[in-house]
Amino acid sequence: MSRHLLILLSLIATVTTSSSAFALYLNDTNISVTLGNTMPAEPFMSRSTTDSLASIIDAESATSSERYIQGKTNVTLSNASLELDFDLGISHELITHFHFWNFNGETFDVDQISLNFSDQNNSLINSTPIVLTPTFAPPGPLIFAEDFDISVSDARYVNALLTGTNGQVSFLNIGFTAVPLPAGIWFIISGLSVLFSFRSRVKKA
């Protein structure tokens, strides 16, 4: 049995026994974020919409620390809520976490996040919003994510509404940990199979 075939069989066994082996962190390398329909074009304090949106999903991993630098790393709105639309790129089963880097004080922190998930056809999956109540980050120069369990199947799009009880909204980052649906995993394996077959033919030639 060839080494390439053994690799493929190993991948297939992994898929059929534990899809969580394919869990990945979603950030600016594989998802995108835009303002929701209720938002004005430039809602943020001290920063442009382009810069603010880019910084919302730029954490390298769910365990990364963020350093609060006023006007540079935080996203802040005054007397307003923030609506965001995420495109996760492909359909996923979000079986692990929603990650949130909150502001480190009660004055501007986010107190509630409402999430609505939709499939690749933009059909709503959850009948009622998933409501999260984050705590503000402990005082200090570095801020870490608060992790929330999420379990939503076949999701590609996420609408998030962030609010603060005092009308202020400030935070640093948002991320997801997701698992591709089986069809996506089999697509990856099929691609590897074609690649291995091509390399075998080249080697024989």
Describe the overall structure.
Helix content is 22%, strand content 37%. By secondary structure, the protein is an alpha+beta fold. Strands 1, 2, 4, 5, 6, 7, 9, 10 and 11 form a nine-stranded antiparallel beta sheet that branches. It has a two-stranded antiparallel sheet with strand order 3-8. It is globular, with a radius of gyration of 20 Å. The model has no long low-confidence stretch (mean pLDDT 82).
Low-confidence blocks of residues? none
Characterize the overall form.
Answer: globular
Briefly note the structural class of the backbone: alpha+beta
Overall radius of gyration: 20 Å
What is the element string, with H for helices and E for strands? HEEHEEEEEEEEEH
> Total number of β-strand segments?
11
Cα(first) to Cα(last) distance is 20 Å
Mean pLDDT: 82
Q: What is the number of helical segments per DSSP (H or I, 4+ residues)?
A: 3
Strand content: 35-45%
> Major sheet: size, sense and barrel closure?
9 strands, antiparallel
Helix content: 10-25%
Provide key terms for this protein.
single chain; alpha+beta; 3 helices; 11 strands; 205 residues; globular; nine-stranded antiparallel beta sheet; two-stranded antiparallel sheet
Give the helices and strands, then pairings.
Layout: H1 3-17, E1 24-26, E2 32-35, H2 49-56, E3 66-67, E4 75-78, E5 82-102, E6 112-118, E7 130-132, E8 142-143, E9 146-149, E10 152-163, E11 168-180, H3 182-204
Antiparallel strand pairs: 1-11, 2-5, 3-8, 4-11, 5-9, 5-10, 5-11, 6-7, 6-10
